[in-house]
Design a protein that fits this description.
globular, alpha+beta, 2 domains, 8-stranded antiparallel sheet, 4-stranded antiparallel sheet, Naphthalene 1,2-dioxygenase Alpha Subunit, Chain A, domain 1
Length: 411
């Protein structure tokens, strides 16, 4: 378990919280690329307890600004998006992608140049990868090198992003992706539907864990034994919030948990296939069934329904959890833990080793940043995992590290 003080340090991101300052130094997924249409409606984005607005200009560039107009604070989410700029509908101030005030119709024309030099609005660099707009919100004028993601070079129709806006702290989302033992229990109703090796997780609910520290985070192996074989699920955790998880199928998945504010988070599910496009058939896969209809927040499918939409009649008929989707099972559990879990009350076991090691790495990292500005992974910003998460079956005498290395495709 953690002390109350360490739990606060890990979870709080609003205002001047040390973890918020630290996380801002990483490129943060902000909004799905498809949601931003040239000259279309600006999109409100809340991150780290602050409000921003994202828009796609006439020429296709993405702007990411503070939401409040610098004049008198009206929301730029209401602005007109035209001529490569946002025009506030209150007094007509026009602000371009670079954050420069280019028109002030409510003032004499001879004042424009002076006002443009003196008036500033927060503007932030962006990049697009994996169907997602990423933003750098840190303190440095020059952003860090953009990460090398395994999905960044595949064609656009080979990758798709889904988003869940969850009513819980960001760390609950991250920890859920690292806990392999719950797969055998919470998700047991779905394991038999896997066309790959994921189904073998049902045979052992108490895996043995091994891990290796990497230049980008931690590689975790959950090892389950079955007869003469060992089934190994290798999860690649990339600091500070991304996990490449083994699906057991040919599609690859990255899950990212980012803070909206202290008590709300945005979970990203980036799915891709190296070899062929994603199709409507893959959208009906048990991982994603029914979720693609609300790609910008699929939790709206169950919001307002008691017990997160759990169906007790399904449970009476033999379904373990009563949820109609694997990912919604995770969302319900994470939110049920409360806005921020009090980790000082936990009773942990050997199945929690991945969570414990990740917390330790995060605590060490945020403290190092407090001390001298160090950002974990910055020495080798282009490092990335070679496997993007794999599920493999090998002989009990085999070495999972060697077998996983044989699956490497992205180094």
């Amino acid at each position: 378990m953690l002390s109350h003080e360490d739990n606060e340090l890990l979870t709080r991101v609003d205002g001047e919280a040390p973890m918020g300052a630290y996380l801002r130094e990483y490129w943060t997924p902000a909004v799905r690329s498809q949601r931003l249409i040239a000259d279309g409606a600006p999109v409100q984005v809340r991150l780290f307890g602050e409000d921003f607005v994202a828009f796609r200009a006439t020429d296709g560039r993405v702007g990411f600004l503070d939401e409040s107009c610098p004049h008198r604070g009206a929301s730029l989410a209401l602005a007109r998006n035209e001529d490569c700029a946002l025009r506030c509908i209150y007094h007509g101030w026009k602000i371009d992608v670079s954050g420069t005030v280019v028109e002030v119709p409510s003032e004499p024309a001879d004042r424009l140049a002076d006002m443009a030099d003196k008036i500033t609005i927060g503007k932030y660099p962006t990049r697009e990868a994996g169907g997602v707009v990423w933003v750098y919100l840190g303190v440095h004028d020059d952003p860090p090198a953009f990460p090398r993601f395994p999905f960044d070079k595949v064609p656009a129709d080979h990758v798709r992003a889904l988003v869940a806006e969850t009513h819980c702290n960001w760390l609950q989302a991250v920890e859920g992706t690292l806990d392999s033992s719950h797969v055998s229990i919470l998700h047991q109703a779905w394991l038999g539907q896997s066309t790959g090796s994921l189904g073998k997780a049902a045979e052992d609910s108490a895996p043995r864990y091994e891990s290796d520290e990497t230049g980008y985070g931690i590689r975790f192996a959950a090892i389950r034994y079955s007869g003469d074989d060992q089934h190994v699920r290798v999860t690649e955790f990339v600091m500070p919030w991304m996990a490449y998880i083994p699906t057991g199928d040919e599609d690859r998945v990255a899950i990212i948990g980012t803070p909206i504010d202290d008590e709300h988070s945005r979970q990203w599910f980036i799915r891709w296939n190296d070899d062929h496009p994603l199709t409507e058939d893959t959208d009906t896969h048990f991982w994603y069934r029914d979720l693609t209809g609300a790609p910008d927040d699929f939790t709206e499918l169950v919001r307002g329904r008691g017990s997160w939409g759990q169906d007790r009649s399904l449970m009476s008929d033999g379904h373990f959890s009563g949820f109609t989707n694997l990912i919604l099972e995770d969302v319900a559990i994470q939110e049920s833990q409360g806005p921020i879990v009090d980790r000082s009350k936990e009773k942990l076991g050997t199945s929690d080793i991945a969570v414990v090691k990740t917390r330790r790495l995060m605590l060490d990292s945020v403290r190092a940043h407090q001390e001298d500005g160090t950002v974990f992974g910055r020495k080798d910003p282009l490092a990335r995992p070679g496997t993007a998460g794999v599920a493999i079956t090998i002989e009990t005498t085999g070495d999972w590290r060697t077998a996983a290395a044989g699956e490497a495709r992205y180094v």
